[in-house]
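Researcher: I've been going back and forth with a colleague about how Putative transposase for insertion sequence element IS986/IS6110 might be arranged in three dimensions. Neither of us has a model we trust, so I'd like an independent prediction. The organism is Stylophora pistillata, in case that matters for your notes. Sequence below.
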Amino acid sequence: MNEFKSVKTPLKIDTCHDADTGNNTDVKTVEGVQLKKSALQYCVTKEINSQNYLLNSAKFANHITEHTDIVLPIVVDTEFKTESLTRLSEEGPYNTSLHLTTQFKFLPSNETRTFISSEFEEHLIEHEHESSIRHPTLRSGFHVIDLLRGEGVDVDLTHDPDVHKQETKDALPVFRVLIYAFYALADVPKLFQGTFLDEFKQEAGRGTFENRRRMISKRRGSFQPGWYAPYRVALNGLEYRLIIDLVDASAIMGNATYAEYCKNLNISLTHKKDMHIVKDGKPPLIERMDEAYIEYPKIFDVYAEEDLKVYEMLEKFDQYMGAIYEKLGLIDYYQESKLTMGSTVNELIEAIIFKFMEFSSLQTDLSRQKKECLELLTRRSSAEHIAQRTLTSVTTDKKKLRHNYHLLAKCDGGRCRNAKPTFISKEGNLFDVDLDGAYSTIMSQLQYPLGIPVHLTFYKTLLKKALSKFDKELVPRLWHARIKTREDLAYDQELIPSWYDETKERVTETYVEDGERKYRKYTALKVDSGKSRIFLNQIEHGILTSDILDVILTEWSPRQRKDFFNKVEIETLMFYPASLRVDTPQELLNTQKEHNKTKPYDFPITSAGCEMDDPTECHSWTSFSLGEHLIDLLKHLRKKYDKKTPENTLLKLIINTTYGDSVSRHFKASNMVIGNNITAAVRTAMYLYEIALNLNGSITDGQVFDANAVLHRARGKFLNMTNIPTAYAKNRKEILQSNTCRIALLNDQPHKYVEDGLLVGNRKYLFKNAEGIDEVAQYAVRPCREMITLMNEIRDIHETYPMYGYRKVYAVLRRQGWQVNRKRVERLWTEMGLCALYAKKRTTLQDKQGRRYPYLLKDLSMTKPNQVWQTDITYIKLAGGYVYLIALIDVYSRYVRGWTLSNTMDTSFCLRAFDQATELGVYPEILNTDQGSQFTSDEWLYACVNCGVQISMTGVADYKMTFLNDDVELKMRSYETSQKEDGRLKKEHAAYWVEWVDGKLELKLDYEEYKYESPAHKIFKAIEENPKKVPVFHNYVKVRILKTNEWSNHYSKKWSAAKIINLGDNVVQMGSITYLSLTQFKFKNIKQSKAWEKFHNRLKLEYGGLGIEIYYLDESGQYLNYERMIHEVDELIRAGEMKPSRYYNRHRHFTRNHSERAAVLKKRETGRKKMRDLIKEKLFPSLEELGVLEEVETFEDPDGYGD
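Model: Here is an independent structure prediction for Putative transposase for insertion sequence element IS986/IS6110. You can compare it with whatever you and your colleague have in mind.
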């Protein structure tokens, strides 16, 4: 492990006379050139860059010689004040931020320097605060030049566009400025001004800088790091070419803040909190940075210096990773930790592979062997390689290959699905199901294959034919395929998502061959492109794995299964053949070495109607346990540390990142077979939960369900998968009449709790066991038909003669001709939870473990209906036995609110009466019962006393949950919901609209409407209060950071004209309130989905962001009938409506009486246009004079609506 020690090699210091000051000055002699003791003592003469960024004493030289490349490593941070949105209402341009100061720290020392920006200096002088200026001013185009000059270095900067050309390159050495920063996007662009800033903007527009997880810079057309700036720099007379390189530490531990990073790495920040203190009733100093500089100079300076602990952060992280390698027995393979968590974990996986393959880390050719190893063992199954296997024309004869292997480069994500599109809000016994450690548990059970998998592409081949040909070669969870339907399915399915509208791109790859740089062009799949959605009757590029196939074969009905296999064809398949598996790494290497490329494999390629990729390659393979070699070891290490310790946090992050690396297109060690099988296993588990517990939907690994509304199979039947997708649209009565399933309590018979989970119908579901996810994905053997028939006969006898015990039931069975043992009848009787019924002396049997509540009716006068309800149980004697009656009565009106008969006196029949009584949504203030066991049970108390949780839902994965302690959890994609400690939104919002003023429509802005409540909060709150009358809220603007991709994509058309806007600044973005999300509905096929999206989006463009919602506005245009809208849209979509315009049209919905509504919609769109013009005017003040304002692109979000 590289461990840096803060000891640098002492430089040779001489003394000479300074003619300017008359004083003796320290100098050092460098080949005849005298250099003052300065920042140059921190220069490194050995090569370091953003890919090799850790320093150590061996890399610092005693002196700097001519013609030697040098590197200056420095930590940089800037302080700035972000302008408020209120500037939109003020005169002048919208200056998005005011740069205050820049702090530098020399490495490896802790010496810091602070400079004030020239614009802030002018601001202080203008506002008569000149006396507050206490730092030197930044004057140079590149602020590092000011730092060097401040340290006594004679620096001369000259613009030279040809400085990096070959002839100059050979003549001049390199001066590389290696900048260490945290979230460099915010700091690095502020290091430039003047013409140097213009050069930086142009270079960013060409794509030199990228910002995925972190900001990086690279030379165009190569992998060399850094920005090759068009400048030559002279340092004390020695000339260099200037390269600016970045080390951005903001991604080493995932997505977290600077303070969280320091906390996780045990780095103390003693003064950061001082800037968050509220003083004099004003906002905290962190929001008034310019005032803090003036009024609280000590607090400001200490706060700014604490932001320079970036290198310490990198060092500490490297030490932690080294310790983990050592504990895993991989220390010999440890190099330097990477700058992203994904790259760091990828190195860890590669080290495990090398150790498993018995590659010595001490070999001199390790890097070459490493490359060859990954090429043969892992790269062929990586997303990077598979994405390139598209329809290409890279061969010399321009022959286009017909394969479609590229479809396997896509990894379908978690199951995010709204199972009940018309569900709005509910209170009751709601529980949150969560698969604890879902992905890590699956990973620990998988084998990690090493070798070249078999890739097959099929041409109009039915899936059942392909499975019959290759079934013996498919190892469970070591294969995946893409499938599609030939025609629409006859039965609804909600298991397999479709992936459609994917795109490809032309890629130019640079590589070196025989010492020459060469270029290769090819077409590659854009893995992140396209849409993923479940369609009821169509599958397009759907993923198929062993877990999904298992559900189809065991859970779907024979008719649905037959229809599926007759209409689904396979497109492409990747698998590790069972017949070619070898046991040891050495055996694999020998097999690959001895492989005969002329001998074809004995696969049924021709008869299966497929074509094989790389048929001459060796497809032997071996594997190691991902759990045994990594996941289980990391879990074991985590248990040794408390949850909040840095070690525990880091280990958890490594475990979670392992899955991400398996599907990443950036790593050769990724494996799409592994990635797709992990997600498929979790998606399958959630699919089963969704059905068994009647979940409201799925959000990756959890969702909410109502304990009093769980789907159960009807008597003598299994749950019918073909009817479940639309069961939400039926009420309880309709479901019972369908005779396919029923809705009842979670533990209603014959479904009951078992020791470690829940027995529902035919199998056990484990929703409490964190380690039991694989048991959820593995299904119990279905009882044989004879067993089912016997159980149904026992239940029929029991319902006919409820007073019979199991002995008399056994006698009846024997009389009917059943050859069955009495012990078997007893066992089934017990498992089914049956018992004989007979007259008992008491109907009130206390449960000593049950909870008690005080009597509240003493001295209470009855003054109104629904003030008090009373309930009790009695029994009625019949000719054949006894039945029990429960009734709920309103004490004031004596009206019977609900009643139920039952031949058992369990809690479930009491709850059925309660459900009947509250069917219309009416509840009593007090419900009085005796202390019988039914009324002190948890089920009754949850239903009648504790409301549990309140939930509202919309869209696919948007929800709001309100808990008993009034805590609120709200998630709504595309909307900002994060709040500060005082309740304000972290990202400032402003509402806008237009009003008539003096006969003209004028734009109005309100900065208070969304100050504390985001649009998402307001939408949910309004829907909860009255879904039939939801206010139409104003559209809004908010601020967002201008990132590198948007800058480069739109530089020539937009940002090149914005003189006051810089990369990393906050810019204004328009957003629209969206009430209807089409993703929440269950479309039949892609064609229907696209038709509705096209119609909805066309309306949005015409009516200011409102689509189909306009047909459900009231006459005033101010309120929306949300409930009616989602029910009617859902009904039309379920009915298969392909042309929504046939139902939604002006003649049907817009009458003459709705002129006021039309005027409101017109004003809404006018407001959007005026807001767009205002943003252009504020961000591009010079364009209005040039008369080209209309040429600037709009400032709406990429999707057009929402955030």
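Researcher: What would you highlight for our discussion?
Model: I'd start with this: The radius of gyration is 35 Å. After that, consider the following. The chain has a mean pLDDT of 76.
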